[in-house]
């Protein structure tokens, strides 16, 4: 710092010159009113007055200074602030504006401007001359005053955040140009409309054509030159912004825009007009959150399908979150061969009314990440055509979707085909109460790089897929907390089937199964070696109507401790036990139900027999009850085969008596 003495008509005798200072931060100084105390009250009212000069200052940060009412005096000291490249003003609640009008010419090198959390700021620039401003005049009425143009040639980043009283950059009619601006963030500025197209109505005033402003001036009047190089636009909870854009939008206005993020609120959402997104030819990132919209990309106003060709063709990342009324992305099915064709990242969260993730015809050949969560309108996620196109997919996560039944949709066409997920490395399926399988059609699924599979809270998932499955790199499942599940049966299908059996059979000696689909568990070979079945002593099955034969022989031989068996109200059971052909020779030398003591068969309307063959002994049976089984022809039949005819229908045939199957 240098002290320099001047003798001028102004009466200033000395100033403080900070010749080398390039960075100045003033933070949490609640009582600081001025940087250098002046000789009069007007001088002392500004933080920077005529007594200080900063000829080399590049970066200026002013934060948490509640007493500061004015940063600069109206006439800024000569030789100061011309080198300013970054200006940030944050949490200064007493400011009504940030910059005096006379500072405009000193911002030619400014690259970053951030004004945040200043609750009283109404304008960025103060009036040109305070004493000429009539405080009772409304600058939002129709005006014919000349237009002022602000040009900021070097600003690359503009951040206006949490300015609840902001009305605009300047109180009079003006336009702005930002030829170098790359990033624009407008967050929670609820008093001002953000954009409007260039004013186009003119009137004559003393022979000159002047713009007519009949509505409140927006923050930005947009022309072709306003944001010629803007790449990132972030609009967040701006309460007065009912529409992101009014009227038609020529694509040259935001031609270079690549990232667009819109966050509204469920109380005051932002409407996305049909012209806006479709007029952004180079958009590669699009995020929409907290909006009450029922469609994202309207097709209205487009002449034909050819006009869709360039729409979103460059989009690589799409994020949709908390859109409770969204029902579809497109209003109607159109040819979208080039739409979303380069999409790499897709995330959909809390869109509870969305029933179709994407139109059937969309190809996602470049998609690497797919995340879906808390979307309760889906029954399935992907069509076969879309799934087959996802050859680059690396990560898939589907969680907390209440109604989803399968990931790849079933079709009526019974065709055998192969779906290659060549790059998929991570798959998560969690909290999907209705999911029965990943794919229920006889497609072969190939996952050559799949190494991480997380499955949790999927109680109806009986197996992974119906068709062939290849996962050569997978050797374990993971729980949702990241730990490996100890159970591994050699392949993904077998492991999931075994996990399903463990859900059906809790660790208990007394088990009751009522009104559930247990067909797969009863028929599965893994149950024959399962400890839960071997430990059972009492089993009750009631209201399981999907069964034709209750037990296969490979499953029954696991019940070595079973003492009580009660079967009721299973309307499709014809035989309680069916001996599989491959097991007959083994069963001949192995008698079943050797410790059974109580047996009840009740309300089985099409039961024809308990079992067939001479493979069963009941040496300890003390109670047998058969009730309301109108088609029962014999209890144990010597006839072979599930559909074999019973020659002489009696309750107990001669073969059963000869081998003394009952000992009462």
Automatic annotation (TrEMBL):
Sorted UniProt keywords: Plant defense
The family database entries (Gene3D superfamilies) matched by this protein are listed as: Ribonuclease Inhibitor
* Keyword Transit peptide in record: no
* Domain of life (superkingdom): Eukaryota
Disease resistance protein At4g27190-like leucine-rich repeats domain segment(s): 59-193, 231-375, 509-635
Where does the record place a coiled coil?
none
Q: Which PANTHER family match?
A: NB-ARC DOMAIN-CONTAINING PROTEIN-RELATED, PUTATIVE-RELATED
Q: What is this protein called?
A: Disease resistance protein At4g27190-like leucine-rich repeats domain-containing protein
